[in-house]
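Q: My labmate handed me this sequence with no annotations at all. I'd like to see what the chain might look like in three dimensions before we decide whether it's worth expressing. Could you predict it?
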Amino acid sequence: MIIFVQAVFCFFVGAIFGNICTSLFFRLPRNIPINGITHPPMCSNCGVKIKYPYYGPFFQFLFKGLKCFNCKAKIPIIYTFIEFFSGIFSVIFFLIFNVSEYFIVCYLGLIMIFLSYLIFLYHNAFFTKLNWVIVVLAIIKIHFDLHSGEDFIFFILFYRLINGLIFCLFISKIIKKIEIEFICFFIGLSLFINQFTFLIASIISISLIFIFKLKNGIFIIPFLLFTFVSLLL
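A: Here is what I predict for the chain of 233 residues:
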């Protein structure tokens, strides 16, 4: 019973964090300040300030459905999707790692990676701020993963970082030109998962590029799946 209550609590905490992610999802591509105090959440259609408890699309869905409480404009389902799965991921990681620093790092890292991918999927762009968050969280995770006697810098440079650079170098030969934000995202991924897992994801990803080109960001999906699985193992 206690575990159930804790899991429910983790779900709602995760959903609340997912609400922050929805703000990032909406504001970063539009260059809107992410400060919720000076720039409070508002309906993108009528501009009315959103009040509690309708602040989060998930809670808006529970109380009013996927419509603005003022103008009745439809709220994109992606916002509810982000909040809901942020809650689900929180429960999954809690049940595996319990509440710990490692749980927080793995959970936040996975959410930031998926959020960055969704922004790329909808706006065809990666953002440096999110990439740096992923990289920092990955470095913290590596610190937890290292066994005694292993060199931290050597481990990062030769067992993780070089994987991301090689993949980006190979991709650059295919698509000719890639942005620095694209490179930073895959460096963050290479730091988050081990070299063998990243290699397998890279092979599948490159195969998908030859089949589907770069359409719909399908080539990134193997990295997302392998990241999710590797964090749970």
